[in-house]
Amino acid sequence: MRNLICKAALPLMVVALGAAGCATMGTGAGATPSGADPVTFTWKGSTASDSGTMTASLSDGTTYTGQYFQITRNTTVDSLGPLWVGWHGRWGGLGWDDWGADDSFITQYTGRVAANLGAPSGAHMRCKFQLADPPGGMSGGGRGQCQMPDGKTIDATFPKA
Q1: pLDDT tier at 135 (50, 70, 90 boundaries)?
Q2: On the chain, which terminus has fewer CB atoms closer than 10 Å, C or N?
Q3: Do residues 52 and 44 touch, judged by C-beta distance below 8 A?
Q4: What's the rounded Cα separation, in Å, for the pair 119 and 20?
């Protein structure tokens, strides 16, 4: 009887899931260039969007959470406003100067992902990733780098999900 009820409910669940859109999720790993200070990344996005949420959990227990954005030809500079919160309008320093908020950013960085993650303390971690398979989004994997508030960098890798 229980199997009969579950089988009858299955088509309704499939319709409900299809209407809600599919979420994609994955993980990543990172550390400082010396291999110290491991970081665990988790991300969740939607197949209907080029953005989602990302969390970076540091070995000391600090957690940074925020939005990530995949840069596509359809991305507008205005939609990327959350990337510059806490960074005084630009991502200057340590090779991040070229990630400023202007129109050339969109065409130059198609196929990349940018994220601005915040900690409860108000500190921010900024990340930039090159996708291994841009049409696949974060699910296709990639690698990149995050910069901590103190300037320390974290090398990150995201396997294909």
Answers
A1: confident
A2: N
A3: yes
A4: 30
Look at strands 63-70 and 51-58 and give their pairing.
Answer: antiparallel
Give the rounded distance of the alpha carbon of 65 from its chain centre. 10
Residue 32 to residue 125: CA distance in whole angstroms? 13
Q: Does residue 8 carry a pLDDT above 50?
A: no
Per the CB < 8 A criterion, the answer to whether 91 and 126 are in contact is: yes
**Per-residue buried b or exposed e for 12-33, using 16+ beta carbons within 10 Å of the residue's own CB:** eeeeeeeeeeeebebebebeee
- Say what the pTM is: 0.72
User: According to the model, what pLDDT value does residue 35 have?
Assistant: 87
Checking DSSP bridges between strand 51-58 and strand 23-31, what pairing results, if any?
Answer: unpaired
Strand partners, 94: none
Query: Which residue(s) pair with 157 in the sheet?
Result: 29, 143
User: Residues near 60 by Cβ (< 8 Å), separated by ≥ 6?
Assistant: none
Could you tell me the domains of the chain?
23-158 (2.40.128.120)
Residue type, 2: R
